[in-house]
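Researcher: Next entry in the queue.
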Amino acid sequence: MPRGKTDLYEIQAHLPEEPNSFVGRERELVELRQMLQRTRALTLCGPGGIGKTRLALRLLATAADEFPDGVWFVELADLRQPDLVASRIAAVIGVTEEAGRPLLETLGEALRPRRLLLTLDNCEHLLDACAQVVRHLLASAPGLRLLNTSREPLSVAAEMIWRVPPLSVAPPGANPAAAPDAHRYEAIRLFADRAAASRPGFIIGPDSIEAVAAICRALDGMPLAIELAAARVRALSVEQIRARLDDRFGLLTAGDRSAAPRQRTLRAAIEWSYELLTEPERTLFRRLSVFTGWSLEMAEQVCSDEDLPATEVLGLTAALVDKSLVVLDPEVLGQARYRMLDTIREYAAARLAQAGESAAFRLRFRDYVLRTAEHSMAIGMARIPAPWLARVDVFRRYDVDAGNVSQVLSWCLEQGDAEAALRICVAVSPCWIVWGTFGEGGEWLRSFLALDMSAVPARVQGAATVVRAQLVLPSDPGTAGTLAADGLKLCREAGDAYWTALALNLLSEIALHTGHTDEAAASADEALSIAQEADDGWNEGYALGTRAAIAARAGKLREADQLASASVAVMRRIDQQWGAARALLGLGDLARFRNHPGEAHGWYVEALAILREIGARPEIARCLAGLGRVAMDLGATEQARRHLTRSLRLSHATGARISIARGLEAFAALAGHEGRPELAVQLAAAAAALRERAGLPPLPAARTESYLAPARPLGEPAVARLWARGQAMDSEAAVALAVDVPPEEPAGGSPALTVVRTGQAPGDAGPPA
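Model: Structure for this entry, 769 residues:
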């Protein structure tokens, strides 16, 4: 899976791949690494095309070893809503939003114990929002370092501004042909590298070095402009390129004199490249600006019309790649992917507006995203027969196109287009739920559901409201229940069997979370009846899994095992292995509850293999916690501690209090196994306090007593003091108490799995939404 969807601590450098070789900047990198040691917020400033992002990526890669909790890269170029900056950061890092608490506060708490380097890339269009986030995070997380890129400073107190210089060029009057070290000039090296990539075998010789040096000087050492010029060697000699650049820059005197010289130079290079295109190439070039990235099939469907037949898109795309106006990215699912550099894309978008085509092609792209997202959702959730691998591809494909979806949703919000946006949100919601990226999805739905709903069909409103409830549930069961009930009413009115059954399943799960087992059973039974009548395998399997959890809660373990097995069978019948894996987790919990640790271990391992295919982080968390408890049951306390430490540390990194509470409960049990009753009491008390703040019901008295019993010989006053001390702890102190000082040796290294939530004890809650 791509950035942010891989296991959180498996790869410490969470960076996109660089599209080609990195040239020069050796001195800058040394200086910047030194500056990162002296300042907590460093902003790379400069005009578009100066190489801010490439320099930041290289700096992150070289500095990764200095940050034990990783280096992280957050792209903001496609984001248009300032209030989503924190959500985007949280989604990349894996922080889950909590009910009744600002996401920025949760994010700050998650980062507080960490030593990591975070980059916010392309801040210039979101300056105020980025400045607010930076100020808060710097105040909350003392081990955090921020590296930002922006055309303008963020203007925060702790910020150190570093102006990215042009690449070094041969000075005027120099004779590079006579200098044996002409290639020490970075701009010449970059030109040579990109020209050789464009025309294999190209080299800069004594007869061309002077012209190349002049080109680099004329382009002011701007990397993007040099790359565009170098691409022309496929069709022009360097002398011809030099002559054309000289002519083109003569036009700059009539341009915007208030703009920085380098910005004018860059525009001239792009303008020149654009005017060298054929008319069909220009047409496709400007229309491609609607994408953040695309495949050939996307370009053929969205950008073609009577003036530009779909059959010509392939050849024109290849021509734009050759001319370095389009970048060819690595393949995804067997398809080539393309993108434009941001500055070029902005220029293309301006040309699209000048041609009067912006509205039409944004609308075409919106319709394409809506159509493909709904079809993909039907495949992913087994409403269309397909093999499991096709369903896995749905999740992988969305991850690649998440930027496009975000852009289309931004356009919809600008236009007040609630219906199309809600349908898109509903369609991509399985990906949000699978990966645990609840915050960003929930914010989109909140924004669109706040618009005028008078013209939006009840079916769309109902499904969107149910999805919003699904996204809220992990942090706020109470609010989720209200939303699910509202959604159910709308879905019933619309006669939509699938979403009615899903709403009932969700209400059943919420009731189970909050201890209302009779309500949970009634909702699950109705959901099962509707699903079976409609031949809806997903909701049938979902309802059977929830009924299994209800039976387990009532102590009917044989019935629970039969229901969970039936859920697995239904999900496998429709080849929805994610659903099957969730039911396997239930079987694992049941086996552990029946004191069959070997069987439980087998179920967890089987589920984990499936869940890793799609990066289902919440369920991976349950597996990890289950394996930790199994190890504890077998007396393998060291192994249990490793599993649970990974789980709790990662849960704390997300800032999710529910997950932290469950992790602390597991550590309280471990402390009892290790003969440390005082620690068990304090951790149990800290967990109880977190449960209360998160809105979860308290643990059963018998469970709480199991944590307290080993300490009873100390006397009731001592137990009361320990309990009060634990309840007074904040989450950071409680986590440190649990994991930082194990009995014999310090805790191990960084966790190997991404964990968004800790696992659920049997009977503690039903299957996930």
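Model: DSSP finds 33 helices and nine strands in the chain.
Researcher: Noted, moving on.
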